[in-house]
Design a protein that fits this description.
Number of helices: 17
Distance between the termini: 18 Å
Order of helices and strands: EEEEHHEEEHHEEHHHHHHHHHHHHH
Strand order of the largest sheet: 1-2-3-4-6-5
Mean pLDDT: 78
Structural class: alpha+beta
Helix content: 55-70%
Low-confidence stretches: 167-173, 269-291, 315-349
Strand content: 5-15%
Number of strands: 9
Radius of gyration: 44 Å
Shape: elongated
């Protein structure tokens, strides 16, 4: 197709809108209805695949029956000719991917997310009720108009085109891997659960700026790994989005209606509550927690100190109360003085009394010796307890140090992830700018000044200070003005 060409006697090609792996897209004017439309052409290898063309024809017919304010309309399919094409509604806006990038922090706030998500859900739910599964939901297939309205595009069409290209090129990948469900990767039949999983990927990207998995073996992660909770996002949205991303579809949210209920924090009672996951901080065993260790250690310190204090404060009287009560002072036995003239009395003491006195003296000596032994033992016990208390304090300080180190490591990790996200966004932005500059130059070389103006304007929206874009825009505008003076404006 060429700019200025009229095809089918009805659609006049005005300018290219973009080009991708599935084909080219042009802005055209529908002369019959006097309105702008978008025309998507098929790649030659896809156009020559009879099976692909027939399948695409079927998908277009299904898409033509979809009538919803948030679904991009499909008007016509021309399967024959050198370049088969699909005529679709022209959306004056930008892809959701670009919209997310332009938001503060390169992510949607909760209010913006809820406003857009409600429209996306309405579109997908309407299609599901009509029996149509999208099979390729992604931020690249969702447009945001200038007034904030959503249009979901390519219901069934994009997936059919990718399958046709896969057969033509021999590639095994027929899905957008960053948004593909496990059952879709495994080649299972289309189902509502596929779209629910892809919705979860899109919502995750809206709230964080990135899809759930963006590094390493994406397909393997989509099959086996549960995404991390989204930082800075409310628990309700976290639980709802991650419930869409459960690998086992029998435990995943089953419909758009359930997704909407989960986003509103009103999950239906019954099995759905058992299928969803609970979002919380990664659990640590109570014994392994530094804070719990500190509590246990300080409690032990207090107990040991109280015991030691009690031992040291005992008085000698308190230590041997039995000795005073059981032993009385021994008085010397004085012989009685008999009056003169009386017969002498024997001074030999009574044997029973002597034995009792000896036994009492021995018991007193024994007890005194025992108390003397206890005194150094008490000092040793106090020293031992003091050493144990010092060890406990040392362990508590070590636990606090480790906790501080863990917090610092967590902060460094989060900072590294943030810098990585920002670097990826900068790269994407630079690539988008370079693509616009290349496209603008190509259009200028073809004297398509309007197309060049649009391309350079797009580049300046991403980088207002880009000198190359400003120079290209100025040249295109001046050339366009000169062309119009010569009467060549179209």
């Amino acid at each position: 197709m060429k700019v200025g060409e009229t095809i089918e006697g009805r659609y006049r090609i005005e300018r290219p809108l973009g080009e991708g792996g599935m084909g080219k897209v042009y802005l055209a004017h529908d002369l019959a209805l006097d309105k702008k439309v978008a025309i998507k052409t098929l790649l030659p290898q896809t156009a020559s695949d009879i099976r692909a063309v027939e399948l695409l024809k079927k998908e277009v017919r299904l898409a033509q029956d979809l009538r919803h304010e948030n679904i991009c309309g499909v008007y016509h399919f021309q399967p024959s000719g050198d370049e088969p094409f699909v005529v679709m509604e022209f959306i004056d806006g930008e892809k959701l991917t670009h919209f997310i990038f332009r938001q503060p922090g390169h992510r949607c706030d909760e209010a913006t997310f809820r406003r857009l998500a409600a429209q996306i859900l309405a579109a997908v739910e309407s299609a599901h009720r009509a029996g149509v599964i999208h099979r390729d939901l992604s931020s690249g297939n969702i447009m945001v108009k200038r007034d904030g309205a959503i249009r979901v595009m390519d219901f069934g069409i994009a997936a059919s085109l990718k399958e046709a290209q896969s057969r033509a090129t021999g590639s095994e990948v027929t899905v957008s891997i960053h948004y593909a469900s496990p059952e879709q990767i495994n080649g299972e039949a289309p189902s509502v659960s596929m779209d629910v999983y892809s919705l979860g990927c899109v919502f995750y990207e809206m709230l964080t700026g990135q899809p759930p998995f963006r590094q390493g073996d994406i397909l393997h992660q989509q099959l086996t790994r549960q995404p991390d909770p989204m930082p800075g996002v409310s628990p309700v949205l976290n639980q709802a989005v991650l419930a869409c991303l459960v690998k086992d579809r029998s435990r995943r949210l089953r419909s758009v209606e359930e997704v909407r209920a989960a986003l509103d924090g009103r999950l239906p009672a019954g099995p759905i509550l058992d299928r969803t996951i609970k979002i919380q901080k990664p659990a640590r065993a109570a014994v392994a927690s530094p804070r719990n260790w500190i509590r246990v250690i300080w409690a032990a310190v207090v107990v040991l100190v109280l015991i030691g204090f009690g031992v040291l404060m005992r008085t000698p009287d308190e230590q041997s109360p039995i000795v005073e009560k059981s032993v009385e002072p021994v008085q010397p036995k004085v012989p009685a003085v008999e009056p003169q003239g009386s017969p002498p009395v024997s001074d030999v003491p009574n044997s029973d009394e002597e034995e009792k006195r000896k036994a009492a003296a021995a018991e007193l000596a024994k007890r005194n010796a025992g108390e003397a032994e206890k005194a150094p033992r008490t000092d040793e016990e106090a020293q031992r307890q003091e050493r144990e208390a010092a060890l406990v304090r040392q362990r508590a300080e070590e636990a606090q140090r480790r906790e501080r180190e863990a917090e610092q490591a967590q902060k460094r990790s989060e900072e590294g992830q943030r810098q990585e996200r920002e670097a990826a966004l900068v790269r994407q932005r630079a690539e988008a700018i370079q693509a616009d500059l290349t496209h603008g130059k190509a259009l200028s070389d073809k004297y398509d000044w309007l197309g060049a103006i649009a391309a350079y304007t797009s580049a300046l929206q991403l980088d207002p200070g880009n000198t190359a874009a400003r120079a290209g825009l100025r040249l295109a505008q001046e050339s366009r003005a000169a062309e119009c003076k010569l009467g060549g404006c179209k």
